[in-house]
Amino acid sequence: MTTLLIPVDGSDYSLKAVDYAASRARESKSPVEVHLLNVQMQIVSVNVKLFVSAESLESYYRDEGNRALEAPLARAKNAGLNVTPHIGVGDPAKIIMDYAKEKKAHEIVMGSHGRGALSGAVLGSVAQKVVHLASVPVVLVK
């Protein structure tokens, strides 16, 4: 079985990564398992922790993560992929690497650009970090 990890952030590039994984799965001779991962940046501030409960923060991360996963998850299911969604909280590159290791991913498939402020200008900084840190192949989809 081939295991693919697809980090998604709600961008069109994330949807293109799912499309790539679906075409790769169709061409594969062995079953393909897909893990969709959305990483929420952790809100770290003394003021936030004083006025917002841990439960409220967890709910916020879950709601935002589910919102970002909705379209890629639907697209993956429509393509017939065996897909499992996940939500992580923290530094995106680190969480992606942790999930890749935990799920024993054979490959990471991600959009070349994300939703950052300069997303159209240069290769996304998260993508750069993942390429640098990864011990498995990383496919960047444009």
Overall CATH architecture: 3-Layer(aba) Sandwich
CATH superfamily: HUPs
Detail the poorly predicted runs.
117-122
The number of helices is 5
**CA distance, first residue to last residue:** 26 Å
- Summarize the amount of helix as a percent range: 40-55%
Biggest sheet, spatial arrangement of strands: 3-2-1-4-5
**How many structural domains?**
1
The CATH topology is what? Rossmann fold
Query: Which shape, going by the Cα principal axes?
Result: globular
Per CATH, the class reads Alpha Beta
Précis, in short:
The chain has 142 residues and is of the alpha/beta class. Helices cover 47% and strands 23% of the residues.
Looking at this protein, list some descriptive labels:
alpha/beta, Rossmann fold, 142 residues, 23% strand, globular, 5-stranded parallel β-sheet
Characterization of this structure:
The chain is of the alpha/beta class and 142 residues long. The protein has one domain: Rossmann fold, CATH 3.40.50.620. Helices cover 47% and strands 23% of the residues. The chain has helices at 12-27, 46-51, 54-78, 92-102, 125-133; strands spanning 2-7, 32-40, 82-89, 107-111, 138-141. Strands 3-2-1-4-5 form a five-stranded parallel beta sheet. Strand 1 (2-7), helix 1 and strand 2 form a beta-alpha-beta unit. The longest helix has 25 residues, at 54-78. Residues 117-122 have low confidence and may be disordered.
